[in-house]
Q: What sequence folds into this?
């Protein structure tokens, strides 16, 4: 009996403002976790399960096309543009003409496991669910006789705690409901409204998710990075480690990278290709350092993510932070990552104060920012792409543009 041809559909057209400033210069699907873009985590987990992957894109779609190409590990990649981002239902509807029959549908925001994808494929209609402590923040699946009957978006009153995590096994019959839904209070066409209608006529199985790593905010990358690095069980050294270097933990070291004399690496650390680490620096895992990065003398990097091309000048400290592509730290730059009162660090998003839930959290810095010598950054503050600080500046609020120099005023 021939293997059934299955497609996957990944919805990643939206412009993610909650992951600013990192997504000002790239789509969310290209945010790196453990030195791999989110979209490639999806594709690696789909390998061997599907024959074709349909990627619905819009915002900076050319970057995704360039990264992925038209074939990935034997899977044909088809790109569909959602020209007007009118919601998740609209994102699926624009792919209708290239969907053949049975397909695995997923939101392109979070990380899932291959085991969960496999489990879904054992059912005719099914969705992934996960119990959550704060159901008011999620779409909650209503279950009757072990079957999903409805999804209620962000209920104000308690109706359950089984969250819809955004992965489904469906077929083309979903499209018969496309003209039966109206725009929601967010002025969007919601996929969950189509699904709720379909659940009234089809038996939907709820599969408990084995792994669901939400990437909601920019700092969510740190939690995801830690989870993935904790799965690494052995080192893989392709670069050079000089004498008098200490490695205590698992180290992934890329080609043409060098860890210099006096460096001390502790915990799980990933270092990409063509990097120079040290001398005499301290790298504490879980930390991921991209390609073409430089870590200077007497630098400490702790539980952080550095994108490709980041340079951290000597005598600097980077803690619990995400540092964008080609960011340059001048000597003596310090990221504070702990409040004096020991309470969770807050950050600002669209003028709203957000509790990150993290006791230790440093900074998020966008691509190509230049941080001058002896800059100090308060916990939870963000710096936008291409922004420069001035020497000895203290960053107390999010910095979205640089101050003019005395000569420019």
A:
């Amino acid at each position: 009996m021939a293997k059934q041809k299955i497609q996957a559909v990944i919805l990643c057209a939206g412009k993610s403002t909650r992951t600013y400033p990192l997504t000002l210069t790239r789509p969310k699907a290209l945010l790196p976790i453990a030195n791999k873009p989110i979209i490639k985590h999806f594709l690696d987990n789909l390998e061997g399960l599907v024959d074709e992957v349909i990627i619905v894109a819009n915002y900076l779609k050319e970057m995704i096309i360039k990264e992925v190409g038209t074939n990935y590990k034997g899977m044909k990649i088809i790109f569909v543009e959602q020209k007007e981002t009118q919601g998740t239902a609209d994102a699926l509807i624009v792919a209708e003409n290239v969907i053949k029959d049975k397909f695995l549908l997923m939101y392109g925001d979070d990380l899932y496991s291959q085991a969960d994808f496999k489990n879904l494929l054992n059912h005719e209609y099914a969705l992934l669910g996960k119990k959550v402590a704060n159901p008011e923040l999620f779409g909650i699946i209503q279950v009757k006789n072990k079957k999903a009957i409805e999804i209620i978006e962000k209920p104000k009153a308690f109706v359950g705690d089984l969250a819809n995590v955004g992965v489904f096994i469906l077929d083309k019959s979903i499209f018969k409901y496309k003209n039966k839904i109206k725009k929601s209070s967010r002025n969007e066409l919601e996929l969950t409204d189509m699904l709720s209608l379909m659940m009234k006529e089809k038996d939907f199985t709820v599969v408990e998710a084995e792994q669901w790593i939400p990437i909601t905010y920019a700092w969510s990358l740190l939690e995801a990075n830690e989870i993935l690095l904790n799965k690494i069980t052995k080192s893989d050294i392709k670069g050079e480690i000089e004498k008098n270097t200490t490695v205590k933990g698992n180290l992934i070291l890329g080609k043409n990278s060098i860890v210099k004399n006096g460096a001390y690496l502790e915990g799980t650390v990933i270092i990409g290709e063509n990097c120079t680490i040290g001398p005499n620096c301290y790298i504490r895992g879980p930390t991921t350092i991209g390609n073409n990065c430089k870590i200077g003398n007497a630098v400490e990097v702790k539980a952080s993510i550095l994108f490709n091309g980041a340079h951290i000048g000597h005598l600097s400290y980077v803690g619990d932070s995400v540092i964008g592509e080609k960011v340059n730290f001048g000597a003596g730059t310090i990221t504070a990552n702990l409040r004096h009162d020991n309470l969770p660090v807050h950050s600002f998003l669209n003028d709203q104060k957000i509790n990150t839930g993290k006791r230790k959290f440093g900074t998020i810095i966008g691509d190509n920012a230049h941080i001058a010598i002896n800059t100090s950054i308060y916990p939870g503050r963000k710096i936008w792409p291409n922004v420069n600080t001035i020497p000895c500046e203290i960053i107390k609020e999010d910095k979205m543009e640089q101050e003019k120099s005395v000569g420019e005023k």
Q: What stands out?
A: The helical segments are 38-46, 61-68, 88-93, 114-120, 191-199, 220-229. The radius of gyration is 23 Å. The first helix runs from residue 38 to 46.
